[in-house]
Specification:
Blueprint (H helix, E strand, L loop, with lengths): L1 E7 L3 H7 L2 H8 L3 E7 L12 E3 L7 E3 L1 H11 L7 E11 L2 H8 L3 E6 L7 H6 L3 E4 L9 H12 L10 H4 L18 E2 L2 E2 L9 H19 L1 H5 L1
Parallel strand pairs: 1-2, 1-6, 5-6, 5-7
Antiparallel strand pairs: 3-4, 8-9
Helix pairs in contact: 4-6
Amino acid sequence: MLHIDILTVLPDLLKGPFDHSILKRAQQKQLVELAIHNIRDFTTDKHKTTDDYQFGGGAGMVMMIEPIDNCLTNLKLNRTFDEVIYMTPDGEKLNQSIANQLSMKSNIAILCGHYKGVDERVRKHFITKEISIGDYVLSGGELAAAVLVDSIVRLIPGVISDETSALFDSFQDNMLAPPVYTRPEIYNEWQVPEILLSGHFKNIEEWRFNQAIERTKQRRPDLLND
C-alpha cells in the first residue's frame, strides 16, 4: 500500500479533493493511505506562527525551517520516506513518467509551499525531489499537491476498475490519446467512424494508433521529438 503524508498550513483545503471519486475509493479499498498534517501543530511558538520576514529584506513572508523539521522528524519515527517532495513553480515539471515512477513507491511525503516559499535550508537538507505542475504560480502548494496525488494514485493497480484504461491515457507512450466515441452512433447527422463499429479489433487498434500519432503531430509535436 502506498502511504502519502502531506505537510501543509491549510489542511482543510485538501479535504475536498481527497474525499471524493477515485481518491476516496482508493482509500476505502486500502490501496493508498493519505495523511494530512498541519505544520502549525509542530511549531514551538504559542501563536502557531510558521512564517517570518526574509533576511536581507524584500516583499513576502517565508516558511520557517523549525516547524517543517519538527513535522518531518516526527513522521520519520514511523516510516522511511522514498521521496520527500516540495511543490514549487521552479521544480521539475510533472509528467506521466514521474507519476508512473512515484506510483511504485511505498512512502512519500509532500510539502506544500506558501507565501514566498520555504527557507532554502529546507530544500537543501530535507527535500529529495521538487515538482511543478506548470509554469505559473498558485497561492499555495495544496492544489498542486492534490494534482500530484491524483496523478499517482490512479495508476495503482486496483484503483481504477478497468486497470488497462490507465495504460492508454495520454502521455503514457509519449503520445496523446486517440479520439473516443460512445452512443448514439449518429447524432445530428454526425457519424461515429465506421471502423469502430466493425468489430475488427486489429484494424481498430491500428486506426487508434494512427489517430494518436496524427493528434500528437497536430497538438504536441514536441512529444514525438522526445
